[in-house]
Amino acid sequence: MELRHLRYFSVLAEELHFGRAARRLSISQPPLSVAIRQLEDSVGARLFERNSKEVRLTPAGEALRASARRLLRQAEEAALEARDVAAGSAGRLRIGFVGAMLYRGLPQALRAFQARHPAVRITLAELNSGLQIAELLHDRLDLGFVHTARMPPELQHRLLLSEPFVCCLPAGHALARKRVLAPADLRAQPFVLFSREVSPDYHERILSICAEAGFQPEVRHEVRHWLAVVSLVSQGLGVALVPQAMRHSALPGAVFRPLDRAVAQSEAYGVWRAGPVGPLVERLLEGVAEAVPQA
Questions:
Q1: Cβ distance 221 to 237 under 8 Å?
Q2: Which end of the chain is more exposed for a tag (fewer CB within 10 A), N or C?
Q3: Which DSSP string do the residues of 232-247 spell out, in sequence order?
Q4: Backbone phi, then psi, for 107, in 5-degree steps?
């Protein structure tokens, strides 16, 4: 049974006249008659009673008519959905993100994207970079926002932003009176650090900034989210080096000071499975790049 057969059957069931049905279908009568016989053979029952005077549906034809209309409607809807997905106006996006992206324009980009594409269903999962890469490889995410450029060959990535690290201090700290800090100013301070387990890249990057300034930091606390880093600093439990975007976290009790020299940058990448970039992924990547807050 083919959709073509059901379409021919449905038109003939409405017209109950082979000539009129053939004209509506833009075919001649013989192909229509052949298609109806093929459908009857497939169903195993006569669908029409026909003679020289009339054509009418059999009970089997009456039973098939509603189902044929439903199947044809579903096929049309499926085709429309496929076209919408191909055009990027409908579909599904499963997105992973590291917490710092909440201060790097991701919420604003998602809000604008959803307003332009209301038929797209978006699901979000906050995951560290390593977990996002694993989920992408298992096809459980469509797009990730990560801190690392170290990717397996099955994935592609794009740099979305590169920003400096800044110093995060408790508001009442003596160093907070300075407008600009040198990394060496932090030599004797207890540190709150991003966990090596969660992001080896960030952990090593911060340690390298301290090493270049000639000291090894005294790490008092290791946590799994940048917001937790800033929160502990705001409570007076240490100092930290954090991506510049974390200044937008607006946690009371924490202040941010720039460093006096160029150091390792904090970077954010969009990552997806290798191959052509789908229109939905491309539009969201562009939206995030445009929504990155200015320094």
A1: yes
A2: C
A3: HHHTTS-BEEEEGGGG
A4: -60, -40
pLDDT at 191: 96
Query: Using an 8 Å Cβ cutoff, are 205 and 162 in contact?
Result: no
Q: Measure the CA–CA gap between 200 and 124, rounded to whole angstroms.
A: 23
Q: Give CA–CA dist 189/207, Å, rounded.
A: 14
Closest by Cα among 141, 88, 123, 101 to 269: 101
Q: Is pTM, for the whole model, over 0.90?
A: no
Q: Provide the mean pLDDT of the chain.
A: 88
Q: What is the pLDDT of residue 67?
A: 86
Residue type, 3: L
CA distance 167 to 243: 9
Please name the amino acid found at residue 200: P
Distance of alpha carbon 61 from alpha carbon 71, whole angstroms: 15
Residue type, 61: G
